Amino acid sequence: MPGEEEKKRKITKEEVKSLVEMLRYLMDAYGFFAEKLGEIQKSHKESYDFIFSLEATEKLPEVLSEMVEKFPEASKLYTSILIRMTGYMPKINSLMTLSADEKIELGRNLKALAEDLSELHNWIEKKVG
């Protein structure tokens, strides 16, 4: 019976190592995220509360328009980031139901998005600093 054979199957050392490595990366990423989120909430409470409010969602088009007008040199990058983030959210929310190839593609897309966010962060640092 195939069911009994699957139950008796032992996980290999390589499989365990891969799972532990994946969990390590996941915990590191979530830990970094939670820590940064808490730091922002603590140091910029009013902005933090606003960003996660319904009012902020409603004002997003207005804020985007202002950013494009104020900083046209960064608007293409900023707009690209927001559009891609919006497109990736459904896949992120259903990550465990994606195929292996879809997960790999999403991971690569998110890493590329992170690079663009770094570029935007650096641009903001130079502009403000």
Structure write-up:
The protein is an all-alpha fold and 129 residues long. It has two domains: 1-52; 59-129. 88% of the residues lie in helices and 0% in strands. It is built from six helices and no strands. The chain has helices at residues 2-8, 13-43, 45-51, 54-70, 72-93, 100-128. Helix 2 (13-43) crosses helix 3 (45-51). It starts with a helix and ends with a helix.
The backbone outline, from C-alpha atoms, is elongated
Rg calculated over all Cα atoms:
20 Å
Largest sheet: none
Helix/strand/pairing class, anyone? Answer: mainly alpha
In round numbers, the mean pLDDT is 89
How many helices? 6
**Strand percent estimate:** under 5%
Amino- and carboxy-terminal Cα gap: 68 Å
Say how many strands there are: 0
Q: Give, in order, the helices and strands.
A: HHHHHH
Number of domains: 2
**Which spans have pLDDT < 50 for at least 5 consecutive residues?**
none
Residue share in helix: over 70%
